[in-house]
């Protein structure tokens, strides 16, 4: 009987420990991208691309361009 109780508590404890360590390893980075206000081309990284690369557009990144925050998972 004592063996059964001990085994049951180990199973529950192991499950909780595994679950919390698994979720704590998930890490994310966030970065900003933009889409051209004139032709909707994108996404572009505003730190690298300040003019739309769509041939015939060439619009400069401005306050009217659509901006989104992208969240990406980083695995170790």
Give the SSE string.
HEE
Structural class: alpha+beta
- Number of distinct beta strands: 2
Proportion of residues in extended strands: 15-25%
Region (Disordered): 1-22
Would you mind describing this structure in some detail?
There is one protein chain. With 76 residues, this protein is an alpha+beta fold. The chain has one domain (2-74). Helices cover 30% and strands 24% of the residues. The chain contains 1 helix and 2 strands, in the order αββ. It has one helix spanning 2-24, and strands spanning 27-35, 66-74. A two-stranded antiparallel ribbon has the order 1-2. The radius of gyration is 24 Å and the shape is elongated. Mean pLDDT is 79; it is low at 1-21. Residues 1-22 are annotated as: Disordered.
Helix/strand layout:
Blueprint: H1 2-24, E1 27-35, E2 66-74
Antiparallel strand pairs: 1-2
Q: What keywords describe this structure?
A:
disordered N terminus, alpha+beta, 76 residues, two-stranded antiparallel ribbon, 1 helix, 2 strands
Concise overview:
This protein has 76 residues and is α+β, with helices and mostly antiparallel strands.
């Amino acid at each position: 009987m004592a063996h059964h109780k001990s085994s049951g508590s180990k199973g529950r404890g192991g499950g909780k420990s595994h679950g919390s360590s698994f979720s704590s390893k998930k890490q994310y980075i966030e970065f900003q991208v933009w889409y051209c206000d004139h032709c909707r081309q994108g996404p572009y990284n505003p730190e690298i691309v300040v003019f739309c690369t769509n041939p015939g557009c060439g619009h400069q990144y401005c306050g009217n361009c659509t901006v989104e925050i992208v969240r990406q998972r980083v695995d170790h």
